[in-house]
Design a protein that fits this description.
heterodimer; A: Sufe protein. Chain: A; 3 strands; B: alpha/beta; Aspartate Aminotransferase, domain 1; Aspartate Aminotransferase, domain 2; 17 strands
Chain lengths: 132, 433
């Protein structure tokens, strides 16, 4: 458990990277996780099919907000196709901890809201429900 | 009744913490012994016995209820109300005996007024669809409250949308109680239905249902009460309360997934069925159908026998222990838990302070999301709910998106609450707040 709330996760939660607003976003979206009330909004500046800059804004649990902060560094410089391809493996690799399906939903809010910003439908394709 | 004196409770032993001298109180129940009736509470999870503090979401089940369910499957199972063979008669007898038990549990005037449903949510939807859609129309006013569980709020939004009736709300005070002034402001409106909860599932507020029902009747309205958080924890007498409908969930009172709706017979008679199909009809021709008598008119399909029998066994179980004793036990635990949590800096509690409240402790920890609180408490074997508790308007009133909620029941001990407080300390250490 202490591993769960390891230093770098709490650091990203308390000091989120790329937080705030862009002057000229070209795409944006908002998402919620109705289960626990996590809220997350994203703004993207896309030029030449590449993410030039990104901002996240939200409030929610440490996992959802830390994941957004970590993913924000990942998406910069990526092509739209590469951002679309981000999934649970990428988020879990950033977080560095295993997550139960319920908490995975928190972690995946960031990639889901990115997909919506890119015009895709929100989906839960990365959620696999397994019995414990 | 046991109440804390100026220096705390009447005392037995000193526990838990150096930073404050909170004495563990005594209660009218031997909860440590009651706990032995609940197999799941005696089984380790992650190497610890669970401190189960989520009974407001769903309660655990005692051996007596589990045995009753096993017994009916092993000795008396068949399709209820349909079979003429002996097993079928036995099944029907046990199903209807369960109704008699629940009728007595709620002190309804007649078994015809007790309809078995899946849960309180279905009971409230039954009233919304079968009463609301038939008897409400444009110009009529439905009154609900800002503290309702979504199940006694969203159905009325739907009824308003479909009938043209207007939905208005009784507001909350900052203590988390109903603002009676905002109710009086509605006195001039053409109020036809008042929907209010008995006990708030997210704030622990206890409403004066009898007074609300009187107000509704004085203004020509019917009163629909959500009893899901009340019936497991206190004596409920629907006749004394004077409400017209009262919905309960068996799974919150030691039973399986089954609920009941009490409805006044003359209203139920006037209503059309909510769901139609087998068993709830009198005569069907290709041209039309007439309805079966009460309460069968509202129970289509083969009824869930084992659930009904388990529900009745649960009602028997809590009745035998005594709802007054359970209530008093929870009052003592609630005051104790409130005292422990409110002594922790950065912890904010919601709803009215004890003793004017139910055993639901909804709280936030500054700088930590409710979900993270619950996750760290889980590592200590403490089970609490985190979220908006299906009461988003009430959460919004207090400007929070979510709270952690610890709720107590007959099997909880002061030790469970000590573990909760120690867990909250650990939350604060982990997050450095």
């Amino acid at each position: 458990m202490d591993d769960f709330y390891r230093e770098n996760i709490l650091d990203h939660y308390k000091n989120p990277r790329n937080s705030g607003h862009l002057d000229h976003p070209t795409a944006s979206a908002e998402g919620v996780n109705p289960l626990c009330g996590d809220e997350l909004a994203v703004e993207l500046e896309i030029e030449d099919d590449t993410v030039q800059d990104v901002r996240f804004n939200g409030r929610g649990c440490a996992i959802s907000q830390a994941a957004a902060s970590m993913i924000s560094d990942v998406v910069k410089g990526k092509t739209v196709a590469e951002v679309r391809a981000l999934g649970s493996e990428d988020v879990l690799e950033e977080l560095g901890i295993p997550l139960s399906p319920i908490r995975l939903k928190c972690a995946l809010l960031s990639v889901n809201v990115l997909r919506v910003a890119l015009g895709d439908a929100s989906d839960d394709r990365d959620l696999e429900w397994k019995s414990a | 009744m046991l109440r804390p004196g100026p220096l705390g409770f009447g005392l037995r032993r000193r526990v838990y913490t150096e930073r404050m001298a909170v004495e563990a109180p005594t209660t009218p129940l031997d909860a440590a012994r009651i706990k032995l009736d609940f197999p799941i509470l005696m089984r380790e999870v992650n190497g610890m016995l669970p401190a189960y503090l989520d009974s407001a979401a769903s309660s655990q089940k005692p051996r007596q209820v589990i045995d009753a369910i096993v017994d009916v499957y092993e000795t008396s199972y068949a399709a209820v109300h349909r079979a003429v063979y002996t097993l079928g008669e036995r099944a029907t007898e046990r199903y209807e005996a369960a109704r008699d038990t629940v009728t007595a549990f709620l002190n309804a005037a007649s078994r015809r007024e007790v309809i078995f449903v899946r849960n309180a949510t279905e009971g409230l939807n039954l009233v919304a669809y079968a009463y609301g859609l038939k008897f409400l129309g444009p110009g009529d006013v439905i009154v609900s409250t800002e503290m309702e569980h979504h199940s006694n709020l969203v159905p009325w939004q739907e009824v308003a949308r479909r009938t043209g009736a207007e939905l208005r709300y009784v507001r909350l005070t900052d203590r988390g109680e109903l603002d009676t002034e905002s109710l009086e402001e509605l006195a001039g409106a053409d109020v036809k239905l008042v929907a209010a909860t008995h006990v708030s599932n997210s704030l622990g507020t206890v409403n004066d249902v009898a007074a609300i029902a009187r107000w509704a009747h004085d203004h020509g309205a019917v009163m629909v009460c959500d009893g899901a958080q009340a019936a497991p924890h206190r004596v409920v007498d629907v006749q004394a309360l004077g409400c017209d409908f009262y919905a309960i969930s068996g799974h919150k009172m030691c039973g399986p997934g089954m609920g009941a709706l009490y409805g006044r017979a003359d209203l139920l008679e006037a209503m059309d069925p909510f769901l139609t199909g087998g068993g709830q009809i009198a005569k069907v021709t290709l041209e039309g159908t007439t309805w079966n008598e009460l309460p069968y008119k509202f129970e289509p399909g083969v009824p869930p026998l084992a659930e009904a029998v388990g529900f009745a066994a649960a009602a028997d179980y809590v009745t035998r222990i005594g709802l007054e004793a359970i209530h008093e036990h929870e009052q003592v635990l609630t005051a104790y838990g409130w005292e422990l949590l409110s002594a922790i800096p950065g912890v904010n509690l919601f709803g009215p302070p004890p003793p004017d409240r139910a055993g639901i402790l909804s709280f936030t920890v500054d700088g930590v999301h409710a979900h993270d609180v619950a996750q760290i408490l889980d590592a200590e074997g403490v089970c609490v709910r985190a979220g908006h508790h299906c009461t988003q308007p009430a959460m919004r009133h207090f400007d929070v998106v979510a709270t952690s909620r610890a709720s107590v029941y007959l099997y909880n001990t002061t030790d469970d609450l000590d573990r909760l407080a120690a867990g909250v300390d650990r939350v604060k250490r982990t997050f450095g707040v």
